[in-house]
Structure prediction request, 316 residues.
Amino acid sequence: MTAPALQAAHGLAGAIAFHDSELGGPVAHLSSAHGTALVALQGAQVLSYVPRGGTEVLWLSPMARLGTAKAVRGGIPVCWPWFGPHPTDPRQPAHGLVRSLCWRVVETAVHGHAVRVRFVSTLETATAGFPAGLSAQLDVTLGEELALDLVTINDGDEAIELTQALHTYLKVGDIGSVTVAGLHGRPYVDQLEPPGQRRGARKLQTGLVVFEGEVDRIYATGDPIATVLDPLLGRRIVVDTDGSASTVVWNPWIEKAARLGDVGPDGYRAFVCIETANAGADVRTIQPGAAHRLTAMIHAATAAASGAGGLNPEAS
Ligand code: TA6
Prediction:
């Protein structure tokens, strides 16, 4: 649907407006007492989140363009119905099928000071081992925090094995001064392959996660609360989750950022990915007629507002 048609069908005065973005495609603009957010119809991808009285929480590539075959780098890409490479078919794209597809808007709503848009994407044909009719529903809710609920509904007659992620790019002052708390004592799979180490080595996190080179790790977690401590921007960003037993932490650093080609000069220094996932060993089997919900809740607070914990690098 075009932006004007979306606006006529789903616009809510003072809360949700649809327009054509200068990035080259239709977007939903959410506005509430708690802040603003921008979501592209392409990939149902959140591109911006600015809490009231705060600054941009998400990083977006300076080369971001909608309407191309390539997924937009930045914001919160939806990796579905698989995370990373396809489990059996190397011809398939990384991170699933829906990042570059146009999702449907099925509902918009205001609940008190919270504003919500519901997007759906449905496989039209059986693809890569996933049945036609399998659908993903994403609720983006702008309230005191930004909440994303990714619900996979299996209304087919066979069980499916699902991996997925809300691949959140958080904007930071400088990756070299950022740490991530909340993962101390958690096992992780190191996706890198430095000299003398095979890819997939199993390790244990001690203390804060720090960034002195490329980091690409799948942490086995309960429902974790990872907190990004950013002394330069003077803020903490909490990523709380539900329906997830794995969190991916990624920064490409210099060489990989150059290979990716859409990070921009020194762009790797301006973000860290904290990805709310069902990834690695955290595969979810969804039986016929069942559904699975993956939830990410993102909250940014200034160091002062976040109390004594503040940006104390000793916090773990
Ligand atoms: O989540 C980390 C990761 O799997 C990295 O290995 C890197 O490939 C990143 O995702 C970005 O993937 P993309 O397909 O968006 O370039």
